[in-house]
Amino acid sequence: MSSETANENCLGWAARDASGVLSPFKFSRRAVGKDDVSIKITHCGMCYADVIWTRNKFGDSKYPVVPGHEIAGIVKEVGSNVQRFKVGDHVGVGTFVNSCRDCEYCDEELEVHCLKRAVTTFNAIDVDGTITKGGYSNSIVVHKRYCNTIPESYPLASAAPLLCAGITVYTPMMRHKMNQAGKSLGVIGLGGLGHMAVKFGKAFGLNVTVLSTSISKREEALTLLGADKFVISSDQDQMAALAKSLDFIIDTASGDHPFDPYISLLKTSGVLVLVGAQSEVKFSARALLRGRITISGSVTGGTKERQEMINFCVAHDIHPKIEVIPIQYANEALERLIKSDVKYRFVIDIENSLK
Questions:
Q1: 263-281 per-residue burial string, b: 16 or more CB within 10 A, e: under 16
Q2: β-strand 139-143 against 294-297: which pairing, if any?
Q3: Cis peptide before 105, with omega less than 30 degrees from 0?
Q4: Residues whose CB is less than 8 angstroms from the CB of residue 3 and which lie 6 or more positions away in sequence, other chains included
Q5: Cα separation of 278 and 81, whole Å?
Q6: What pTM was estimated for this model as a whole?
Q7: Which of 3, 114, 208, 296 would staple 118 via disulfide (CB 3.0–4.6 Å)?
Q8: What confidence tens digit (pLDDT) does each residue in 193-238 have?
Q9: Gap between the Cα atoms of 29 and 72, Å rounded
């Protein structure tokens, strides 16, 4: 059944200004419509996007900002037209909660590329004129199309980071056929996205090399995550030894860095995919021409591919490495996230800490 009036006040944590400091905030979620799913949020992953919009890094923050777009929870109410979900189901919501549902990309379930622009899960203007508010809250109401099923056997805390970090690397890996066992993959950066790229790469049967500037990550890359090689990217001898040996590279680093040294590691017809948010990209055109190199960009994926990824993680026992925290630790966690001081994703235990 669906409610005819707006839900009772929702409790969340919000930033009120560009300081980004989060504190308790009460607001109302919309009424559950005939096509909607109301979700009790149990967990929400922490993404660098939470830093960007709570601190107005892009100059477009709409305060108060309730961040969070890696949402996992339990269905508590469904609209009259909803058949795919029922009360008690485990579900996830990712980086967008609306789209036009009529363009070529929505038709292909690539809603994130909607021609009229997908409505992001927080800090966006929805079709009804309200500002979307994310998963640092105890509930959310979402159109059924933008919810994904999470099998009950898979922990909700582990599922949350899949909905941004996981799908952000899974999507280009599938698009560029990086699921060919025996091929070689390089992963630049070993954070929330990078460690998932390593996990997917190993599950696909790839030979995985982690490329990092930090020697301190060597042991965890090789032992904890199962990478085959670890290379210090600032060491010219180590990089030279790896020349023309990789079929694919996924660049998850968000800071600006040179690209030519990494391009030199690719075999002829190799692919370099950027999923980090560098401010600029510079490389030698001749290196691309000589090596027949493809450089590609990617954001998150659509709802169909997101479900495929969740099912793949369940089937192959792939779990993000997470640090579960209470909502009261959110401000400190964001500071640590800025310093890359997390292995490898913070997940807020909403259910047990947001009261």
A1: bbbbbeebbbbbbbeeeee
A2: unpaired
A3: no
A4: 31, 32, 38, 77
A5: 42
A6: 0.94
A7: 114
A8: 999 999 999 999 999 999 998 899 999 999 999 999 999 999 999 9
A9: 17
